[in-house]
Amino acid sequence: MVPKLTLPFVQCPGFQNIRICLPGYSILLLFLLFYPFPAAFAQEQINIREIISPLAASFTEEEDLSEFTERLSFYLKHPIDLNHTSPEQLKELFFLSALQISNLFIHIRVNGKLKDVLELQSIDGFDLLTITRLIPLITVKENMDLNFGKIHTGSHTLTLRYGQVLEKQKGYKPVPGNKYMGSPAKILLKYKYELNDRIGFAVLAKKDAGESFFSGAGKTGFDFLSGSLAFYKTGRFKQIIAGDYSLQFGQGLSLWTGSSFGKGDDVAGIAKKDSGLKPYTSANEYSFFRGVSATYSLLKNIDLTSFISFRNLDASLTKTSTGSYTLSAINTSGLHRTATEIDHKGSLGLLLYGLAATYNQNSLDLGITAYHSSYQHEFTTGTQRYKQYGFSGKELTNLGFHYNYTFKNIYFFGEIAQSIPGGIALLNGAMASLSPRISTIILLRNYGKEHVSFYHKAMGEGTTAANEKGIYGGLHFSITRKWIVSVYGDLFWFPWAKYRIDGSSSGYELTGHLNFKPNKTFKVLLGWKIKHSEQNEGSGLPVNQIVQIRKDNYRMEVHWKAGRKITLQNRLEITSYKKGLIDTEYGYMIYQDADYQPMSSRLSGNLRIAYFNTFSYNSRIYAYEDDVLHGAGSGVYSDEGIRTFLNLSYRLAKQLRIWCRYAIYYYPAKTNTGSGPEEISGSKKSDIKFQIRYQF
Known about the structure:
mainly beta, two-stranded antiparallel ribbon, membrane, RuvA_2-like
């Protein structure tokens, strides 16, 4: 039996009476967490985890994060030449704000080409943290590097990934219920070809756990297939894409597919950086279009993007007395494991077509979007109060106008959207560099309750760009080169009912981060988040009144380099949750990470050991988890248990590398884990993953 150690916890607001009970071996974790080990290393390398991990709570699935990690990996090998780049390319470096990108091009236009990357220090908005992240991804050259020797050669990347849960889940057992039709294996196959900046070709095939593979409903093999062929710089055509593609315009109110940031740790992500048309290479099975699209340079500063798409979406259909079919919502999970899920697959045809026009000149960008969606079956609103203003019918038209303009040190941005049928949604904001050390942002939004958009990623508290008003403000302050503070607040309210809220409601969110980095080898991060919202007291009550919900999170992280090869990271996070008059519940998590990344060795890897204890799922904690290349996501830490994983990577040859991962949750007080068809008999849940990549 593991001995227990009971310790009084340091007092902080809302936690005066807590005492933490940890396993005996966690004394070592506490020692490592708070003891500042000095270390030095020869060369600073980019830490993708440091950039990606703040996004983990918003992107819990690896499909969502892979789009960003792949771009970072690409630019590590092919750095961006700041003297010969475009705003569209820099927008792919998602940690750059729209104001920073605008200020960079204004600086080059006024002062000429950059002489050195350190010249970024003289540009408003570029703090030391941003420049440190940028340096491995950029370069500065006086003249274009044509490199004629490689003009006719392309790069090929072939990736195969396999993973599965090792314990047998209920859905795979021969018992009545939602039985899974396939094996527990999860398989991803991806091929990508790029010929400089002229041609791109990609094919992706995926099988989720529980889906059939060359049997039953999956007789043809993979459940999901995606591919695209792209041509760039063909006469006046900037790009032509056949197959699967993504469209991102404005601030995401009218038209935005693929991943996007909402509220989070990084204030820079609030003002969206649209990229227009691009090939779709993610494994997410919903957020893309399938057909043909092209961007045409009509005039020097005006581009037209036309698009047409036809897809079969997943939906649960209801047959009416007249023999027609109706639905209330689209299924976006992409899972086809059970007989019911298979029956819903591809049951809703969608024809979508439209046009986007953009005007870009110096500091001013303007754009309009217009597209029409024609669905095979009719949407109905349902009888629930919160669905009263939902979309009904088969035909939907979306219109939008967006802008951004830089005036001196202020970046203005916004969008107005109209849906027919439906209403109007409006968003306006400004981001400013008040001084070389201080930047701020403010955003106001007003989304009408009748507004409808199935392809949006607008900033907001809700999941739809409808029935919401709000005011957001943020401040980023570099106190010194060693100390950085960022804080933001968001006040929001909903005029009409929402899911699990039978009337109007409101709330607010306050978040802050303090970074201390005295040298290149050591960093401390303190973070906090306080959120108040409202929800129905319960379900099935005669009078279901709306009550207050408060959830707080407090976090401390320590990063340091223990020599040239090893990086250590620790986190202690505490959370509290209170709903109505129910007693406050608490949770906490502590973990130790160790990365082994030698400069010249074929082998690298990382390890985590974590202990967590939360009262319920309401007080759960999210934390970024390293994985095989481009497989990272967010782990959910709930109940009481231990979490550990080990990732290893080995370079077999110059062009061939393999990854493997073993991860396990152990819940000592539970006799089974999970629920429904995911239920496992026993106190642990473990999984393995293998990946191989060949580049030629």
